[in-house]
Amino acid sequence: MDKKISRVLKRLENKSNYEEKNFDKIPHDERMLAITKDTGIFYNTILRMQKPKRILEIGTSTGYSSLWFADAVLGLKTEILTIEQSKKKIEVATRNFKSAGVSKIIQIKQGNAKDILNQMLKEFRKNKSRKYFDFIFIDADKEEYRFYFDASLKLLKKGGIIAADNIIYPERFQMYIKKYMAYVYTKKNIQTSIIPIGNGQQISIKIK
Question: Which of 180, 173, 171, 176 lies closest to 202 in space, CA to CA?
Fold first, then answer.
């Protein structure tokens, strides 16, 4: 693993551990709400095998998952596009990317994820030389997972991967996740599995 990225990840992991122990004491807009370390290792491994040219992340937070993605594709000229609404979190993520030395390969889009995805789809349909994404990661507001999935599927190349966090935990999200997964399983053009790593991961491969 790249040393600069590793140092930033370690700092963020310490912060995440503190957050987990003092969750109710931290204001919502200051919470990292990041993936777990083992989840980061899992996706880092997948991306090293996949060697994607384009990655889309829906929900940057402070950039913890983005850094795991970036470490996996160093030297591959991969583009990472990540979406975040909170200006405060974008400022923190930007500093983290700079400290890790990966600012040049990560572009942050600030705004409401649904609005940004709708705009991306509009531009995508118009552009005949459209560039598909190889890997899309969903980790934002759970009640919108179905919309994010549908938008992602249109932006994803054949053989590409859509992944989503919080499929098993925390339990407070289950009312949304159960409906979401029931919808995903109706899709005929993907193959989906749930992986019990971290807070539970959904992996869907676009097969046609």
Answer: 180
The rounded distance, in Å, linking the Cα atoms of 204 and 105 is 25
Evaluate if residue 19 carries a pLDDT over 90.
no
* Cα–Cα distance list, 14 to 20, 43, 48, 62 (Å): 10, 20, 25, 13
Residues 170-191 have pLDDT tens digits of 999 999 999 999 999 999 999 9
Q: Which of 100, 127, 134, 115 is nearest to 206 (CA)?
A: 134
DSSP SS3 for 80: strand
Q: At residue 106, what are phi and psi to the nearest 5 degrees?
A: -120, 125
> Does the pLDDT at position 26 exceed 90?
no
Which phi and psi angles does 103 have, rounded to 5°? -55, -35
Q: What is the DSSP string of 98-166?
A: HHHT-GGGEEEEES-HHHHHHHHHHHHHH-TT---EEEEEE-S-GGGHHHHHHHHHHHEEEEEEEEES-
Q: What's the pTM?
A: 0.96
73's CB contacts (< 8 A; 6+ apart) are 47, 51, 52, 55, 80, 105
d(CA 57, CA 36): 16
d(CA 37, CA 198) in angstroms, rounded, equals: 8
